[in-house]
Amino acid sequence: MNAAKIPAACAPWVRTRLRNAPGISAALAVLVFLTAFLAAAFPRSVDAYETRALRHDVTTAAPGQSVLEVATPPPSLAVPRPKREQVLREESLAGIDRALVKALPEPVRADLPRSSYGVHTTKPIVAEEAWLPRPNAMPPQLHYAVPSALDEHSRLAAGRWPAAHGEVTASTAEVEAAVTEETAAELKMKPGSTITVPTQGGKPLTVRITGLVTPLHPKSGYWSVDPLYRAPSLMQDPGSPTPVLYWTATLLLASGTGPALLDTTGEPELYWRLAPDPSGLTASDVPALRDAVASLENGPELLKLRAAVGPNTALTTDLDAILDAYTAMRAAIGPVVTVAAVGICAVAAVVLLMTGGLIGARRHHELALLRSRGASLRGIGGRLLAETAVAVLPAAALGLLLAVLLVGEARFLPALMGAAAVGALVCLVLPLRTALSHRRPLLHGAREDMVDARPSRRRTVAELTLLVLAVGAVAALRRRGTSTGSDADLLVSAAPVLVGLIAALVLVRLYPLPLRLAARPVARLRGAVGFLSLARAGRASSSGTLPLLALLIALTTAAFGGSVLAGVADARDEAALRAVGADARISAEGGLSPLSDVFVRQVRSVGGVEDVTAVRIEYGTPLAAATDVRSDTKRATLMGVDPASYARLARGTGLPAFPTATLEKGAGKDEALPAIVSPAIAERLGKQPHTVRSQAGDIQVRVAGVLARTSAVSGSEFLIVDAKRLAQPGPTTLLVTGSSLDGRQLTAAARAAGPQSEVRLRSAERERFVDTPMQSGAERIYGAAVVAGAGYALLAVLLSLLQTAPERTTLLARLRTMGLTTRQGRRLLASEAMPQALLAAFGGLLVGWATIALLAPGVDLGALALAGGDPSTPYTVSLRADLRSLVLPAAGVVVLAAAVAGVQAWWASRRGSIKELRAGDTR
To answer: How buried is 43 (Cβ within 10 angstroms: 0-12 exposed, 13-18 middle, 19+ buried)?
Structure first.
């Protein structure tokens, strides 16, 4: 008879715990899910925007910079003529093109639709036809090219496509060609026109124009690497002592006619223009891409190209310069982003530790009972690890999965490591914390409040060590900055976190002092609520350092992130204002043609215009009389303004007050006009009257005031005089201010005034500074850092209050049996929560402001704010405290603490006091 299997006497531990407390497990899983998502999404987001920035830089670069151009001369004269001619034929060029594409080393890849090859002359050939235009009696000098796939890159506008009739050789007498419509319009060409090309053999080559073409994509590499393919150009004769101009252009010969150029005097050259394909590039490919380009230019890969093309083959490209600029911006932005990442990681880790501590505190008595009945630390820790892993690991995996789905084109390993670190931290916190707290039996009744707690020597040594690290990190960041071009230093990037950590430790040590001082006068009052609240706040657990640490780090991170975004916005506003001078700028071409009074009135009538300042600007004014002007004479910008109107503009744009009275005094006894000048001009002119050459003649000026900068011009050398005292006071520029300008109406009014008028908007100028995906991606990460920091701060407050919620509920129930009213109970709980909430909020404000003040000299926001602007214009990009980022999260902490205390008091009053008073009753 088989023995029946005896079932287990008890239910499995993990299943029992999950059924008994599903809410706690679900809340922990949600927290882990969100944190794992952030930990996995951050490295993927950085990878994604860096990859998009790399592709953007390569794609938007001028084709002449990014293209890989392989060039080689024809075979030498020692090679038989048929073989030389064969090399220049379409079949041979196409075969070499396919070989070059295959020979490119990874990760260099060619974009075949945008690539081209062919034969062209490198030396212009004079065209003596009398019907060709000659601007200064100089005949045009023409180039000849045989590009591939002309019909795929252009549209036939007139005539027919050029074609090769029979086999073309070096001795062919006539070939056909096409030109673009722009070339035909300037050089008076049409279908049927012929050009005679001299050859070395004496028998000329006739090139007949058979068609006019229009480029399908004029800005593509096919037409832009050599701009003469698309349009002619006026060139200046370098050998002439006076400016002499002549036309130069390129005629596009039929496919297969390359051998006809062998005997011309244009020194033909074979070329292959390989456009890079950035679609498969990632940020991690940059080092390999740079090495591959260097090897192609002058290395082992060039030898492979020469083996496929010829011994004199050369490859030229500026792709390495594009990569250098990309790497420089990446190195400048990376450390700034790392500061935000370290802050969010730190506050997330602290909140996770707080969560583990909250769960451990709730189960302290249960685990102490198991320990007293013989349970081993290993057994308790293993069971806790199992029940935690069941909820945590799937949540971390889901967070990783969501990050992978939402953020594409990024590496998987960093995201996996981030999510795994979150899961491992949470799984290990509860078992380790429990094992450490239950190593020895604990005596009941011992106070562990913040007032009576005495820091141990080990804690003092640890705090001093952290203080030294924080001081070192701040000093290193201020000295080295974030733009050293090296990789991010974690110690330097952790400076805001270390400052918040030190502040938390200092505040915890100082916290008992105000409580003791406040408790003495409150104890003499008749009401019990004030004394009880202070006593309860003082008897808070000494483990409250962790919530305070989380709050300070979160508030500091939010404040730092908000300050970065505010600094970036201010820098862009300032740079746009310097470039335009006002909300809009209307000027004639070159700033020379005066604008009429009628046009000024039309601009004033445009919707949204609040004020218009008319300014006359003369660039390059010699600081000498007409008879003394030489090529090396110092020059500056002369401006004639209406003092009152220009003063209003200065006030509206936030510049220093403009000295109106100084210009309105008029000429002195020496008949010199008073002038407001820049510091450099003031130093050069001195205090004596000086003659300058204006467009209307010589005028005398004397320095009457100095301004460091002005709205109308962005340069550092200028003179400002009263326009009414100039011989030609007509304005050349209008500076328009208004809060809601209509750019279309301003442009229409400027076009009606004349085609030479130009309109520039401050808003459009500001958009130029958000030029790359790297900038916008870094800004989004900082925006997420502000939101995450504020969210974790509020979560830390909530966890801190939830940890002591049962104890407060029991206290409230007991006090209600002694006569405490519901209203007094609410006041008691709110007053008890306020000291720590106010401490955290005030500390967060102070630490956030101090962190920004300490780190501002070492944080460079130039690359993040002003990429895409004029690099020659000096801008000051400084980090400043943002009031909203400082105040709003801190105020949210106080409001949430009061709200939670009020809700808890309301809920306790509705439930009654019977359950809390039946302590130890199991019925």
So the answer is: buried
The kind and range of the H/E element at 55 are: helix 22-60
- DSSP string over 749-791: HHHHH-TT-EEEEHHHHHHTTS-SHHHHHHHHHHHHHHHHHHH
Residue with structure tokens 């002058």? Answer: 298
The string of DSSP letters for 478-519 reads HHH-S-SSSPPPHHHHTHHHHHHHHHHHHHHHHTHHHHHHHH
Q: Please indicate whether residue 517 or residue 220 has the higher confidence score (pLDDT).
A: 220
Of 548, 530, 549, 550, which Cα lies nearest the Cα of 540?
548
For the stretch 749-778, pLDDT in tens is: 777 666 567 788 887 777 777 667 888 888
Q: Give one DSSP letter per residue of 552-589, joined into a string.
A: HHHHHHHHHHHHHHHHHHHHHHHHHHHHHSSSEEEE-G
Q: Cα separation of 106 and 100, whole Å? A: 13
Strand partners, 272: 70, 117
User: Mean pLDDT, to the nearest integer, of 115-124?
Assistant: 92
Task: Give per-residue pLDDT as tens, 57-109.
Answer: 898 888 888 999 999 999 888 888 889 889 999 999 999 999 999 999 989 99
Question: C-alpha angle 861/863/867, rounded to 5°?
Answer: 130
C-alpha distances in Å from residue 124, one per residue of 246, 253, 314, 387, 726: 12, 15, 21, 82, 50
467-476, 514-523, 723-732: segment of lowest average pLDDT: 514-523
- Number of residues that make up the chain: 923
User: How far, in Å, CA of 129 to CA of 188, rounded?
Assistant: 11
Phi, psi values for residue 420, rounded to 5°:
-65, -35
Name the residue among 569, 492, 499, 571 with its Cα closest to residue 334. 492
The lowest-confidence range among 397-401, 579-583, 869-873 is 869-873
Report pTM.
0.77
pLDDT-based confidence at 541, cuts 50/70/90? low
472-to-495, 499, 725 alpha-carbon distances in Å:
9, 11, 60
Distance, in Å, from the CA atom of 471 to the CA atom of 607, rounded to the nearest integer, reads 55
| Cis peptide preceding 107, ω within 30 of 0 | yes
Cα–Cα distance measured from residue 706 to residue 733, given in angstroms and rounded to the nearest whole number: 22
CA diameter of the chain: 134
Q: Residue 196's beta-bridge partner residues?
A: 206
Please, are residues 906 and 612 in contact by the beta-carbon 8 Å criterion?
no
CA 107-110-112 angle, to 5 degrees, is 155
Using CA atoms, how far apart are residues 346 and 652, in angstroms rounded to an integer? 43
Q: How many helices (H) and strands (E) does the chain have?
A: 32, 21
Residue 158: pLDDT above 80? yes
CA-CA distance, 461 to 651, in Å (whole number)? Answer: 55
pLDDT band at 250 (very low <50, low <70, confident <90, very high): very high
The answer to whether 495 and 470 are in contact (CB under 8 A) is yes
